[in-house]
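Changelog note: in this version the structure field was regenerated for every chain. One regenerated record is shown below for reference.
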Amino acid sequence: MARTPNAERSERTPRDRDRRPSDQRDRTERDDEFVDKLVHINRVAKVVKGGRRFAFAALVVVGDSKGRVGFGTGKAREVPEAIRKATEQAKREMVRVPLREGRTLHHDVHGHFGAGRVILRSAPAGTGIIAGGPMRAIFETMGVQDVVAKCTGTTNPYNMIKATFDALNNLMSPRQVAAKRGKKVGDIVARRDGAAAVAAGAKE
């Protein structure tokens, strides 16, 4: 004898009923902590016998405003579905970037991908985000408040994003440098601050 939907519903325990809303609540809280920005939408057309079939490709950047950021791409027949796919991929491939005082980069760094070339420079407090296009979306979602960035190669958004992430992957915090060289963190920070003071004096 086949079970009716009402019988299956009555066999569920109270624990199962209580678990579902909490799971949905946890998933919603996890999604709320992320900030996503749509960087680029590309429409492509495939010519078939009956005419043209349009599809859309989305490029999305996702971050938690605390040093974690990721990017993803998605393709679908509709724009919302393409954005959803790109957002899910970006959340799966997030990386953590060390930040200085939680607001800027620890040091200047270069990055490249294909014909894309980017230069990222740390900046003093109050500078803001001086960057354009896709790079600004990365810094805003990552939580960087002061940075100067310049693209010297192609302006293709996909290559600019990948070149920027190549530069971010090359960033190292003083703790990582000290562990690599077998020194104390204070020695690395003092040397960095001393070099910054000398450069400031030379400009004056």
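Spot check on this record: The chain has a mean pLDDT of 81. The longest strand covers residues 35-48.
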